[in-house]
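Usage

Read records sequentially. Each one opens with the input sequence:
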Amino acid sequence: MGAILEQLGIEPNLLLMMAVGFLIVYFILKKFVFGRVSQMFEERSQTIQQQLEAAAQQRLAMEKMRDDYEQRIAQIEEEARTRIAEAVKEAQAARDEMLAQAREQAERIVARGKEEIEREKHKALVEIRDQVAELAILTASKIIERELDEHTHRELIDDVIEKAIVRRGNGQH
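and closes with the structure output:
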């Protein structure tokens, strides 16, 4: 093996020295540097793991908050629908009550109108009866004053009617 090394231009003593030096440097680095670097990597790994766990917990907390908000929104929407339905019912009841009051008022107005018509009808009948009585009295007084033939009878009736119309036009009864 020495001949091959010599042909390649490698000195075995130098190679051995280099290997021993490398091993010494390796053990020194292992004792003083690799431990710290390994510890730094471990700490960094733990920090990253903790951050990942914290992120996962935050994500779970956020999902829980989102679910809570969605549930609240659903409750608010349900409450709003309930309030709207109650408001519609109240408005319907108010409308029905107003319609009932309007019907009652209309019925009272119609009843008063019918009573007024009856009073006016009764008043008109009394007036007609008074006028008929007056006409009968006038006619009787005229008959008594004159002796009646067909022509006189017609004139007398026309005269009485004309006087009754004139009296009525002047507001006399």
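Summary fields computed downstream for this record:
- The mean pLDDT is 85.
- The first helix runs from residue 2 to 8.
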